[in-house]
Structures are given as structure tokens and as C-alpha cells.
Queue: 2 jobs
Job 1
Amino acid sequence: MPKVTIAQQILAANDAIAAEIRQALAERGIRAVNVMSAPGAGKTTLLERTIERLRGQVSIGVVEGDIETSADAERIEAAGAQETVQINTRGACHLEAHMIRDALAQIDLSRVNLLFIENIGNLVCPATWELGEDARVVITSTTEGDEKPAKYPQMFAVAQALVINKLDLLPYVDYDIEKVKRQALAINPRLRIFEVSCRTGDGLDAWCDWLMSGPWKDA
Amino acid sequence: MPKVTIAQQILAANDAIAAEIRQALAERGIRAVNVMSAPGAGKTTLLERTIERLRGQVSIGVVEGDIETSADAERIEAAGAQETVQINTRGACHLEAHMIRDALAQIDLSRVNLLFIENIGNLVCPATWELGEDARVVITSTTEGDEKPAKYPQMFAVAQALVINKLDLLPYVDYDIEKVKRQALAINPRLRIFEVSCRTGDGLDAWCDWLMSGPWKDA
């Protein structure tokens, strides 16, 4: 059997599980956000700051994806998430829907209104795999260089929102933020863009407003 | 046929091509370095600075891997590489040996003594794919967070050298460089570690000395 056919079958099976997850979450009134980025762009830190800000307004659950370690899940618990579960992929470069299904079986979904799925740090592979989310968010940071949308277009094409993080480091790097926004919008004109610093808190209000109110699709 | 068997066959076929490349390069006296990192850690910038420093001492060729665009190959040519060739993987998350074989057929190897292969920006998938290189180098940067070796161990296990880049940004980030070195050496005790700033030039002499003199294996 040709390799490409096998790959298509695997993706189709994944998408079927993702559709089941999406329906199960919708029935419970839970909205899910798949958070993706290169390693070190600030996924966990953005979730920590978001959980701290939304405490008391919404009940947050987090599925933490990592190749190894439970360090991020421990940070997320400390930040105050209601429910946290760690997936270790043991080498795999992205999360798949069956991993989310198994992870969700381990937490109390009745305690969750907003579910974050923190994907593996990788700007390529996670873009192809639906996880049952309502929205996909890609984070890029000012220290990564300002040609990331052009070089990794698929990730920016599938996202509803782009968070440009580490605004506080802008004075120390060569980074043309307007170029990044132009590149990203050329790939995906409906992308919502948030410019933030998780260190100083700049821009996090607008990001949290979007999380709480939407619209998430075609905004 | 089970998926894992197919995957093993694909990897075995890749490694056979990699062995051919390694032998062909050795017969020509060319040493090859596979440069890997997360997106934005500074692969292209490190190669630019290296080419500028080694000009007149060694004749450098570069195989540039990107999902899209030829922006990096243009930077490398401007820096003064003797031969440059761009591979666009159109979505694939890593380079494979057959791509290197095809790319090398497009350049004049008689003009090259030292060949750099700049892999796709990805801390996961490239670690599994041999390309016929003599040494693998992983770059991590001070803005990516200081738990990368623990979270992406395979990449650090397969490398001969680790370059910790963006030393100039250390004052502005929370990054424990000694922790990174400890984590990396726990995974791979024979890893050579270079602390550099491609912006200020700090540490690049030691890195260039290693490139020129080795030993690259088991150093």
C-alpha cells in the first residue's frame, strides 16, 4: 500500500475522533483552544498568565502536551487551573486526537468551561492534526525572527488567532513586527492578532477578552 | 502492513542513502555538518557569521532546508558561501537523505571543503533522519527557556555539539545557562558546548576552531 494512502487513512481516523471530541465538549458547553508554537515561544507562560487573569470568571482545564517531563503541567497547576492532565508523547512531534480523548477521560469535565490544549513545541506537524478544538492559536515571539509566517505558512493558515509574544524584548532584537503581521494576514486575512508581553502583561487584556467573548470563527 | 513496519522501512532506506552520501563526501575530502534547532534559534545567522569568519581558510557549501521561501539561501550567498542550494520541503517537517542527494547534484562539490546542511526549524523530527553528515549540531537560544534539553532529549542525544546562542539577551530573560548545560550533558556527556552571541561575536572563535580542527566524534 503506498505511503501516502496510509497517511491519508491515519489523518481521516484522527479527524473522526476529533469530531467526536468536539461534539462531546459542545454538549457540555466547553470551548477548546489548541495552542501551538515553536519551542520556547511562550505557550506555557501565556497559559499561566491567562489562568491567573481569568480566575473567578471561568473554570479552566489544560491538556499539557510534551515529549517528556511533567514540568509544564506542574506550572499550570500552580497557576490555578481547575483540571490539568499531562500527555507525554515519548518522541512524537505533535498531539493526535486519540491522545486528547484518553487525556480527557482522566479529568473531571464538569469542572471545566474553557479547555486549553498545549501542543508539542513545533511550528510544522501540529498544524495537520485536528484535536476537537473550537479555535487554534499560534504563538510567535519577537526573538524568533520576523519571517516565520512566510517560512511556516500552514500553521498560520489554520489558526484563528496569532499571539506575538515577548514585546518586552523588541528593543534588543532585529524584528519588524509590521512585516510579521503583513505576512500572516497575507496567508490568512481573517487571523486575529494580539501583541503581548507575558512578562509585563501588555496586551493580555485584549487576548483574554477574545477568549471570553469571541467570535472565534471567521472573526 | 502495520504502520511501524512501514516507518522502519522508510528510515532504513533513508539511512542507506545517507551512507552513500557520507562515502561520496569522504572521497572528496568534504566534511559535512547537519545544523538543527527550533525555528528562530539562529541557524542561518550562525552560518552567516561562520562563513564570514572562515573566508579564505576553507571553502564552504550550504544546503538550505526550508518548508517555503529561498530567503535563507539568499542570505547565505550574500555572506560569501562558495556554493548554495535551497531545498523547499513544501510542508515536510525535516530533511531526508534523498533530498540532500538531489541537492548535492546541483552544486559543484569540487569547490567545497566544508558543507553545512541547515535543517528545517524543528527540535523533534530532524533528530531521527541521518543525512550523510559527519557531525550534528543543535542550537538553542537563551530566549527559548532553559528546559529544552529535558523536553526534547532526542535532539541533544544525537548531536556532537550544542551551540547556546543569543548570549547578548541573557540580561533580559529568565534563563539558567548552567541548568541547560547540566541537562544537556546528562543526556549526552560527550556533547561539546559553545556559548555564543551571533550579534556580538562572543564565543564564535571557539566554535570556528572546533569546525576547523575537530575532533568531531566522541570529543
Job 2
Amino acid sequence: MSASRLPVVRDVAGLRAAVAAWRGGGQSLALVPTMGALHEGHLSLVRAAKARASRVVASLFVNPKQFAPHEDFERYPRDEASDAALLAGAGCDLLYAPGRAAMYPDGFATNVIVSNVSTPLEGEFRPHFFGGVATVVAKLLLQCLPDCALFGEKDYQQLLVIKRLARDLDVPVEIVGRPTVREADGLAMSSRNFYLTADERRIAAQLNVIMRESIAAIRAGSTIADTEQSGKQRLAAAGFAIVDYFAVRDADTLAETVDLSRPARLLAAAWLGKTRLIDNMAV
Amino acid sequence: MSASRLPVVRDVAGLRAAVAAWRGGGQSLALVPTMGALHEGHLSLVRAAKARASRVVASLFVNPKQFAPHEDFERYPRDEASDAALLAGAGCDLLYAPGRAAMYPDGFATNVIVSNVSTPLEGEFRPHFFGGVATVVAKLLLQCLPDCALFGEKDYQQLLVIKRLARDLDVPVEIVGRPTVREADGLAMSSRNFYLTADERRIAAQLNVIMRESIAAIRAGSTIADTEQSGKQRLAAAGFAIVDYFAVRDADTLAETVDLSRPARLLAAAWLGKTRLIDNMAV
């Protein structure tokens, strides 16, 4: 199939018809939910999906429910033709690109709320965010009913929230997390990197450098509290205007942790100008 | 199959194995969710389910999430053996009776919240109720993935909430409402009728009588406001200690209504001693 010929469906009926035809032929199915503005991180998910299932659907929906009014919903980058070409090249079989009215028709009134793991970190700084994510992901999973759905670890807390909702609501799907894909200088790939000026882009790489060095310091004996404080100071000195958090947490619950008796994760969010970057790494 | 031989499964894996075997054989499937304490209302749902699908699963789970701490979760009637015999006699093929740990394992953290239609009436007097209902019904639907699921109109607002959540979350199921089944004197059948003393049982029939007469009064020209007020007074005079509501509402949205230009519903909730009765009728 040529890159320009990726089939596109725009409503649930079209998606289900394609899925039913594949299911009738005994094929397995993987879903890669995206908000478009695709980069190598997304494409690595599509390739991993293709290794797990005979058919891969990518969804493209910039979900208004997960943006607060002051956030970047309107300026979020959108280029469906380019995204479709990239998806086809990575082995995607179908693009599901519903409009807003197809996802949230008049009278829509249901929200999926995940407690606990959604509360700290992103939940504190973007209180609307995980409700929007959980609701739209539940919908996408139930519209498609894939065997597995793949998400990047770059949005680590989001991955935990989605695993929790799929388990709790008994959605018959395997949620698969895949490693963050990085630029040559270590910056985690993100659609929001497109917003960065050249100067900001240079500074942005320091986020990953400081995280790696902080993890090395913890392994060498620094306390978690000292490392968190030092990391915030170093980010500020590097030019990050605001550091929302720079925190070592339990890798499963995101609860605060003072030792490393259980797997831990370093998670950070910081601002460069109008752009908010997040990243995380295993400690 | 004899009544005593109704197969029972107690976890999602067992349910899905049975469903997969039927699906593999091309059979259609209906689900009848219940909290047990079965009466003719439930059995009429099972028979209607059997007319729509080749296989019928009934679930039996007294859902702790839809009871407030002061409510009757502990004393809610439970007799699984009797329920199983009744279900088998009505044509049910499988009883799904999960334990609490199978439904809400440690770490459970997800809730399905339906706004708007869940807010007035029951939502006002039992503010925890519809969150619990929506969450458990979403789980049951996704555990079973039936072609259709049947609910009694006796819980009219609940039926609207369930229709809304199934539509909003794209659960691939048809939600079917079925008419309330009544005793000879018109009392809507309910598991909570078992709580009534002989005196209370005699008074209980007045709920339906007053509702029918109120609807007749509206059709004869009484205003909705006058009819609601008069209905509450008549219930109190008949011996209902507390009337939570006696209200004519839009039949689809449950919004207040002053005319009958759209379909309307009379809904009522009132107490006899420690027992709370609800009923509703088309105006």
C-alpha cells in the first residue's frame, strides 16, 4: 500500500465495519491512539503494534476534554495528510480520525474518573487532564475493541492511569507501554517540541541530562530529597522558567518514596517560555 | 436443563470462557443484571432476553458501591440457591455471581460518572447511587459484551443513566428497557417489598393508586404543580412517613416541565417505616 493510500474512517460505524471484516478473517488487531503531530515516538508504537498484531489502527483525535481553557488546544499542531503518510510508511492499516461531533455528540454526559494514581504530579498541575484522557481512551478502546493498545512511556503517569482504567472497567485489552524515543541529545520526542525556539531547543536537552545525573547521584548515595531539590535548582539555572515538579516516586503508585526498596521513577515537568516539557526515567 | 443445574461462574475468566464458546458457535447473547432477591419483574426480563438472544446470562451481584453507609446493603435479601432455581425456570443459561473481590480487587480506583440525567430525583436523595450503578453496569457490560442488556423501567432514572453511559462510552450493546411488573393491586414489584410489614404492604398499594389518579387529573386539566402538591399530601395522608419526591418530568431528560408538549413521566419515592419505595408511570 502506498503512503498516500492509507484508508481513513471518520466515525464509529466505519471503524467497526473495518474491524468486523478483519475479525471475520481471524485477524488480530492493535490500536495506537494519537493526537497527531506524529514523530518517531508514535511511529515506533506503530511498528511495535505491527509486530504484535496482524492489523494496526491508529487513531487521530485532538481531544478537547484533556485541555484546560488556557492551554494549547487551538494551536496544537495538526497536519493529517502528513500524519497519514507517516503512519502508512510505518505499517499502519487504517487511520481512524473522528470529528469532535462523532466523539462527543450533543447530550454527552459521561466521564471516566481514575483516582489515586491520577492525583499527584500532572494531576496537580493539570487537574482536568486525566479525566479527559481516561474518558477518551475508554471510548477509543470500546469503539475499536483491539487485542492490545500501545502507549509511550514518555507520558508515564498517563500510561498508569490507562492501565488502571482498563483493568478496573474490565476492558478486554492488553495495555502495552513502550520506551520513550529520544533525540540524539536525549530530549524526549514530543509534539510540543515543535513549539520550541532554537534557543529553547538547546536548553531543552538539559532536562534529560539533569535527570540522568540525578539518578546517578541517587545510586551513588544522595538522598531523594536532596536530589529533588538540587535537580530543581539546576533546571532553573539552565533556563527553565518554572519547574512544576522534579520528583522520585514509587514506579507503580506514584506515591512519595524515601528509599529504593521498590522500583522508583524520576518524573519531571518544566517550562521553557510557553512550552511545557515532561520526561521520566527509571531510577 | 433442570432448575437445580443452572451453571454458575464466579469470575470474569469463567464468564468470558462461556461467552467465547457461545460466540464461537455463532450464538447471540443477552445479559440481565440483577442484585438477586428475584421476583417476577426479573423473571420477565429473563424471558424477554430469551426472546431476543439465543443465550441469556443473568448476573447476581449486590453492589456495595451503590449503597450509602446508612442504607440497607447488609440486610439486602440474599438467597442465591432460590434465585438460581427461578432463573433456570425462566430460561436463563448461565448465572454470573462474582464475589466482591472479583469485582473490586485491591487498588480499584475507577468510577464512571454520568452527569445531567443522574442529578435530580434519586440523584438528590441518594447522591452516591448513580456513580455506583454506572460503574458496576459498565463493568458487567464489558465483562460479558452481550448483544443486548435488559433493565426494568421500575428504575426509570437508572435506565436513562445506563442508556446514556452505554451511548457515551460506545459500549457495543443495545440497552433495552422493559415495563414494570406489578402485583395484583398495582404495587410495583421490588426486592424491597420483602421488607414491608402487613400494614405497610396494605398502604404501599396506595402509591400506585395515587399516581394513576394524578395522571388522570393532569389529563383532565390539572396543572403539574397542583398535581404534584396534591399527590404528596395524599401520600402523607395514606401513611407514607416521608415523600422524597412526587414529580412530573420530561421523560428523556428528567428536566422540570410545565406542559405536556413532550413525553412526560411521573416519578415518586416515598418511605413506609424503614423501607423506601419508588415507582414511575408515563403521563
